[in-house]
Design brief:
By secondary structure, this protein is α/β, with parallel strands linked by helices. 37% of the residues lie in helices and 17% in strands. The termini are far apart.
């Protein structure tokens, strides 16, 4: 065996940020200090797979363990008998942290010259030009890392390991691509005991106290292929799913053995196969498992029967993309359009069943104008979701939106390090970047302070009559205030940008 052990690492946060690499389909987001920790599931799967196969390993999850560079290096020093110990270190990277992560890996290589270093993550195949110029990187893992790392640790010749990009006599060589794992039931349950799982908590809000939570994946891949979305880039277009029994077995383990109170499904479209979702819910009910859970899906993948079963089985929240209130803008970016009427009808049904709703909007998509953006803001006010979120169109590397933005002169070919989708990075064919930034700020202000009310008096199900009376008053007042603010903004932006058209990188 070439390596005596593998070290699986989620590098430290960049200074001043919380790095949630699982956000945005695995491309990652940087959030302010104090944000909820979201561990990268592909890292957890990798460590769990290696554990099942009996591969000697050390796990260093700097996010959950709250380790800085020195803390990480100290843990490495404990794990390695001497600096020249032949180990393979595999690090998870992301779009906004790539430069930072590579600098951290350089310090590791300097301190421990015997280590061979590999990197993986949804973006690595699309940033080869950046990674390959780093002399301290030995391997780039293309695609799902589990089998690739295992075969490398088992001593297979590098050229025989699919999904591996490696150095040979100073030149980079790429082995054949590894196909995505289709039979997800053969993957192990996540070995959370290897990680500081007690540190992953949803903070206290007006809706509920702080709770322990863990994320889960019951399926991978998204066949819709929206042009702006990183999920198909990282997980592929093929929808791959776990059986209902396998999913509920893991839920039962999390609740019974790890005392998890809340589960967040990270599937791109949880209810794409509604019959499977119903079967999962029936099995949760049959086993008497009591746990709250939340998922993300499309509104048009939710029949009334499906929602009723989800509510009975513990679902208390659904995230869904609206993106734009205008079906033409949705269709513009490869999204199967959903009408306003369908959103309103399904949101109302969710609320009757006790399921909170969270709607995502994107400002500045191709085709967006002042009129379409203001229309989306007004729809966010009127559709009555519990919470909304406004982000800006981000040309993530590898997406069709990126190709469009480059063709329009709105992005450069090798740019990748966007901080997050709240930060405006481009305009479109109708609006300059500064105009999109101003409209996005207005949308975010309206959403955060008038629709979401910063979470204040937002719990529909608290039993206190006094609380519910106060909430009804807050709902009425904030809705009318939001409508008034919208009217002023609509007048102002139409006047200000009536003839202003431009674009800016």
């Amino acid at each position: 065996m070439k390596f005596h052990q593998v070290i699986v690492v989620n590098p430290p946060n960049p200074p001043g940020f919380v790095s949630n690499k699982d956000s945005m389909g695995g491309f990652g987001h940087l959030f302010p200090i104090g944000a909820t920790y979201m561990p990268p599931l592909d890292l957890i799967y990798l460590a769990s797979y290696l554990d099942r196969e009996g591969v000697p390993q050390t796990v260093i999850e700097c996010l959950g363990e709250e380790l800085d560079e020195e803390g990480m290096l100290a843990k490495l020093a404990v794990a390695l008998p001497d600096p020249d110990w032949p180990a393979l270190l595999v690090a998870r990277t992301s779009a906004p942290t790539l430069d930072w992560d590579l600098s951290v890996l350089q310090k590791i290589k300097t301190r421990f010259p015997g280590i061979s270093i590999g990197v993986f993550g949804a973006i690595v195949t699309h940033t080869l030009q950046r990674i390959e110029r780093e002399a301290h990187v030995d391997y780039i893992i293309d695609g799902e890392p589990d089998e690739t790392v295992h075969e490398l640790m088992a001593g297979q010749a590098e050229e025989a390991v699919s999904g591996l990009i490696y150095r040979n006599n100073g030149e980079w060589v790429q082995s054949p691509k590894r196909v995505f794992i289709k039979e997800l039931d053969r993957l192990p349950f996540l070995k959370w005991e290897l990680f500081p799982y007690q540190n992953y908590r949803l903070p206290r809000s007006s809706n509920r106290p702080a709770v322990t939570f863990l994320p889960m994946l019951s399926s991978r891949g998204c066949p819709v292929g929206c042009h702006y979305c990183p999920y198909p880039v990282g997980q592929g277009l093929l929808f791959r799913l776990r059986s209902p029994e396998n999913v509920v077995d893991e839920i039962e383990h999390l609740v019974r053995d790890l005392k998890v109170e809340y589960i967040l499904f990270r599937d791109p479209i949880f209810s794409l196969n509604q019959n499977r979702v119903i079967a999962i819910c029936e099995e949760i009910i049959r086993r008497g498992i009591k746990v709250e859970w939340k998922c993300e899906t499309r509104i048009d993948c939710l029949r009334e029967e499906t929602l009723e079963m989800m509510a009975r089985a513990g679902c208390t929240g659904i995230n869904f993309g609206v993106e734009s209130a205008e079906v033409e803008i949705q269709a513009n970016v490869g999204r199967k359009p959903i009408t306003r009427e369908r959103f309103i009808e399904t949101i109302a049904l969710c609320h009757r069943l006790g399921i909170k709703t969270f709607g995502f909007f994107i400002i500045g998509l191709p085709g967006d104008t002042v009129d379409t953006i203001m229309s989306s803001i007004r729809f966010a006010i009127d559709m009555k979701a519990n919470m909304v979120q406004f982000t800006s169109a981000s040309p993530f590397i590898g997406t069709k939106l990126r190709d469009w933005a480059i063709g329009q002169g709105l992005a450069t070919e090798h740019e990748f390090a966007y901080v997050n989708s709240f930060t405006v990075t481009m305009g479109n064919e109708n609006l300059s970047k500064e105009q999109v930034r101003t409209l996005a700020r207005f949308a975010q202000f309206t959403g955060n302070y008038f629709i979401n009310r910063k979470g204040i008096l937002k719990d529909d199900y608290r039993p206190s009559p006094l609380y519910q009376a106060a909430k009804r008053l807050a709902d009425w007042a904030s809705h009318h205030a939001a409508v008034g603010l919208y009217a002023v903004g609509n007048w102002y932006f139409r006047l200000r940008y009536n003839t202003a058209v431009g674009k800016s990188v």
